[in-house]
Design a protein that fits this description.
This protein has 162 residues and is an all-alpha fold. Helix 2 runs antiparallel to helix 8 and helix 4 runs antiparallel to helix 5.
Length: 162
């Protein structure tokens, strides 16, 4: 997908992310995955009421601090800390949005319950792209009703492997 499909994530932010990213930029946890996560989130947000700005920044940042493509249980916490180090001109959001982005990144691997629709939408947007690694999204691991919709799951799977 072309970079111009980002609405709030700028090429300057992507350059900063890429400069510190340790893995293959087009690998299973790289930019192509982030773009699908963004699109998944954009599909869910009108139904869930999630903050699309937070969803988009989450998509670009949630896996940005992985050290490997296998088990890396601290990558979410590292991504959250990375978010806090970024120049605010690169992530021009309110303090409340920044807190949500921090939490979305920090807990995205483990979070399964939340009353916050933006957090749930972020986590689901990521989990809907699991077929890229051969794992069908499990409705029991999805937070929002919108993500558990069989049509949404089928759409996401088709994009993950297509």
């Amino acid at each position: 997908m072309p970079a111009n499909t980002w609405h709030h994530v700028t090429p300057a932010l992507l350059d900063v992310i890429r400069a510190q990213y340790l893995l293959d930029w087009h690998g299973i946890h790289g930019i192509d995955h982030w773009e699908r996560v963004r699109d998944n989130g954009f599909r869910l947000a009108p139904v869930t009421g999630a903050d699309v700005i937070v969803v988009e920044f989450f998509a670009a940042l949630h896996d940005s601090c992985r050290w490997d493509n296998g088990r890396d249980p601290a990558h979410g916490a590292r991504a959250a800390e990375f978010v806090r180090t970024l120049d605010r001109s690169l992530v021009p959001v309110s303090a409340a949005q920044l807190d949500l982005l921090f939490e979305a990144c920090r807990l995205h691997t483990w979070g399964t319950e939340t009353h916050d629709v933006t957090l749930g939408t972020c986590w689901d947007a990521d989990r809907l792209d699991l077929m890229r690694v051969g794992r069908r999204p499990d409705p029991a691991q999805l937070v929002t009703a919108a993500a558990r919709d069989p049509e949404v799951i089928a759409w996401a799977i088709a994009r993950s492997v297509g």
